[in-house]
Amino acid sequence: MAEPIIEVQDLYKSYGAVEAVRGVSFHVNEGEVFGLLGPNGAGKTSTVEILEGMRTPDRGTARVCGLDPERSGSAFKQTIGAVLQSTALPDKLKVKEALDLFASFYKDRASTDGLLKRFQLEEKREAFYKDLSGGQKQRLALAMALVNNPKVVFLDEPTAGLDPQVRREIYDIIEELRREKKTVLLTTHYIEEAERLCDRVAIIDHGKIIKTGTPRELKQSSAGTTRIEVRLARPATEAALRGLDGVSDFRTMGENYVLYAARAPQAIVSLVKHLEADNNELQSLEMYSPSLEDVFIELTGRRLRE
Amino acid sequence: MASNLVTNTWSLTKIRIRLAMRNKMFLFFSLLMPMVFLFLFVMVWGKGSPMKINFILGGIITLTVMGGFWGLSVQLVTFREQGILRRFRLTPLGAGPMLASSILANFILIVPFVFFELFIGKYILHMAVWGNLPAIFFLVMIGSAAFSAFGLVVASVTNTMQETQIINQLIWMVFLFLSGATIPLASFPDWIKRITLFSPATYLAVGLQSAATNQVVAFEILTEAAALVLGLLVAFEISRRIFRWEPEAKMPRSAKVWVLAALIPFVAFGAWENYSGRMLNRVNTMMSFIDRPVPGAVKPEMDQ
């Protein structure tokens, strides 16, 4: 079996008293799109920035293409491309100039005209950076990450803060990278992004990886198959709800009760019967197919964006 | 490796020149402001001898050259605060080419401005002579590099734009008023003159005024040139070593003494000049020469 192209072993990183990364280990195979899924402050950016050579870990090892990101200097940087959580360029730098400038730093250079075309920036080639929309700036950031035909691409929250249409455009670009067999390490707190784009996902919270697998494997590992979120007129006891027919797990989430059910219809019928007997009322009921959000809730007791 | 450094430096230099030319503030401070000072100083002090125009022009070229100190420190801090440097950090570009490109771009940008100032001096203000042009451009070259490097040291030790502006103001005041660039050194009391010998700006101003008034041949400004070159090398190396790409990477207060470290060569040269009296002699001789009513007269013997 081929060596992993990214290897992370027992990584730690603290900022003063805050432990951002606490013993993170994972590997990424060549040609794989690997996702770090977790809420803000989970340690995703710190982990990626260590892999990009931007931060020094307190402990642990990180290898990208067999190189130590911190110590391999220029040789390492020739092999990677990256989109930072927020990219900034001088206001009066033109789009084409930015691509040509960044391409000039590398030995292996992609055609910047080709990148303009691919990222639909041809019409904006003479536009100043300050005059681009958020989506155009992010497309330019992605194009800049590919000017050196990198072996590994790091994308740190590439769609954060973008509107849904632009987000879908970015998804298309990442799917294209997958078809090209580029190795991509993606951080995100969007469930749909991880589910749609990633071959494998590591769920990270409080600086620790709590589960890794393909999206399908992770969803199959979820305790229930269907998540039923209900809001009741009056509080109900945990014991009563947990004991309902068809309910395999139960959680309280704010004012809502979350029931995990292998047989959803049976669980709903028994819930309604219980509420009638208890003189309680159902205010709302929503059903969800199993998702990575369920896995996250199951593992942490919180939603991803809480 | 070396060719990469050169290529990267040159790529970034070209972009920096373009960005500067699109910046109205840069054009205002580099072109318009020195012109305003030139005409103002000529109106106030330029009467009597056309050679005074040369002397004033020497000071104005000094201001133009020293402008890189302000411009580059502010630009570097802005780039760091906005996260622009972070993006460059992901590339194979190192701190050396990043800093060297700003120095090189600044030099390339100010050369046409210096030509323009000389042109105005000669054809609009009727300067007596062109001055020693090779010596002027030699000093412009090393002076612009040295003062750019001083600006980069300030940018490297300060954490915020506010802090940069405060430190710049303090240093700029010394450069402006205690160098001879704006107020002739000869008009100061002796003890102030002696203090000014510790300022890098004095070496540039006296060198350029001497060259502009045709008071020196190239080898006679070697001391000034040596002081500026040494200052450039020390300042560049300090700024390269303490360069920070990240906005959140703060420099401890104690690190601000690096600014003083950059001035070490001038402490040594200042002590030597105070001991030898060479530069003060030149200043006094130059003033007596430019006060003569007939321009372009025979160069007087230096007082020994």
Summarize it:
The complex is a heterodimer of chains A (306) and B (304). Chain A is an alpha/beta fold and 306 residues long.
Tally of helical runs of chain A? 11
Low-confidence stretches of chain B: 294-304
Uncertain stretches of 5 or more adjacent residues of chain A: none
Q: Major sheet of chain B: size, sense and barrel closure?
A: none
Question: How many domains of chain B?
Answer: 1
Number of strands of chain A: 13
Specify the helix fraction band of chain B. over 70%
Main beta sheet strand tally, sense and closure of chain A = 6 strands, mixed
The CATH homologous superfamily of the largest domain in chain A corresponds to: P-loop containing nucleotide triphosphate hydrolases
What would you report as the Rg of chain A, rounded to the nearest angstrom?
23 Å
Number of strands of chain B: 0
Q: What's the end-to-end separation of chain B, in Å?
A: 51 Å
Oligomer: heterodimer
CATH topology annotation of the largest domain in chain A: Rossmann fold
The two chains with the largest interface, and their residue counts, are:
A-B, 23 and 23 residues
Going by helix content, strand content and strand pairing, the class of chain B is mainly alpha
Q: Quickly give the structural class of chain A.
A: alpha/beta
Give the helices and strands of chain B as they follow along the chain. Answer: HHHHHHHHHHHHH
Question: If you had to describe this structure to a student in words, what would you say it looks like?
Answer:
The complex is a heterodimer of chains A (306) and B (304). Chain A has 306 residues and is of the alpha/beta class. Chain A folds into two domains: 6-219, P-loop containing nucleotide triphosphate hydrolases (Rossmann fold); 223-289, YebC, transcriptional regulation domain (Alpha-Beta Plaits). Chain A is 33% helix and 28% strand. In chain A, helix 3 packs across helix 4. Chain B is mainly α and 304 residues long. Helix content of chain B is 73%, strand content 0%. Chain B has helices at residues 2-21, 24-45, 51-81, 84-89, 95-124, 133-157, 161-177, 190-196, 200-212, 222-241, 257-262, 264-276, 278-290. Classes of the chains: A alpha/beta (306), B mainly alpha (304). Chain A binds chain B through residues 52, 54, 73-74, 77-78, 80, 82, 84, 86-90, 92-93, 97, 101-102, 104-106, 144, and chain B through 4, 7-8, 11-12, 15, 18-19, 22-23, 79, 82-84, 86-87, 89-94, 246.
